[in-house]
Amino acid sequence: QVQLVESGGDLVQPGGSLRLSCAASGSIVSIYHMAWYRQAPGKRRDLVASITSSGRSQIMDSVTGRFTISRDNAKNTMFLQMNSLKPEDTAVYYCNADVTSHSGMTENYWGQGTQVTVSS
Fold first, then answer.
1. Number of Cβ atoms within 10 Å of the Cβ of 21
2. Can you tell me the distance from the alpha carbon of 120 to that of 17, in angstroms, rounded to the nearest whole number?
């Protein structure tokens, strides 16, 4: 079994910063692709940023220059540094990962989400 646990969500004022973390645990051999998604109320879940095990990353246009994605492969952990937050960044942020387990299978997993609210 593999679990993804997000943390770091909070209420923050516009212009503020937050750092989200996603920790993967369980029967893990390797994690190639990890990503952050977000879902605002009444809207679809959208990709925010992604990163491979080699560190190649992609950031969506809506957050370019404000958000940075990184990961610690040794600790199976991914981060999202969010700066200059705007009210439209308010959403539940989800971690997603393609995990190869000791069974030899590669499966896609989701975390439970962490709430980010940007409001004055």
1. 17
2. 13
In order, the DSSP letters of 15-71 are T--EEEEEEEEESEEEEEEEEEEEE-TTS--EEEEEEETT--EEE-GGGTTTEEEEE
- Cβ atoms within 10 Å, residue 94: 20
Q: Can you tell me the distance from the alpha carbon of 25 to that of 34, in angstroms, rounded to the nearest whole number?
A: 14
Give the model confidence (pLDDT) of 1-48 as tens digits: 899 999 999 999 999 999 999 999 999 999 999 999 999 999 999 999
Contacts of 82 (CB under 8 A, 6+ apart): 17, 18, 19, 20, 63, 66, 67, 89, 116
93 token code pair: 């942020």
67, 81 in Cβ contact below 8 A?
A: yes
Closest C-alpha to 67, from 8, 112, 4, 27: 8
